[in-house]
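User: My collaborator sent over this chain with a note saying "see what the structure looks like." That's all I know about it. Can you take a look?
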Amino acid sequence: MKTDTSEKGLESLIMRHLTGSDGLFPADGSVLAEAKPAAAGTGWFAGAPAAYDREFAVDTEQLFAFLK
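Assistant: Without extra context I'll predict from the sequence alone. Here is the result:
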């Protein structure tokens, strides 16, 4: 098996270690199964890129869920 030494490969390894999922989706956009709602890996939750506020460097969806 060939090792992926690209930036995408590194990101996949980090995501898999932190969340239990590599964060990759099929190219055609299809969904194979529902994602697990609970954290896997070491307890990190992957956020949605659209929820990230670059000005304040925070994922607003996760912040507000934590504050509730």
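A starting point for your reply to your collaborator: The radius of gyration is 14 Å.
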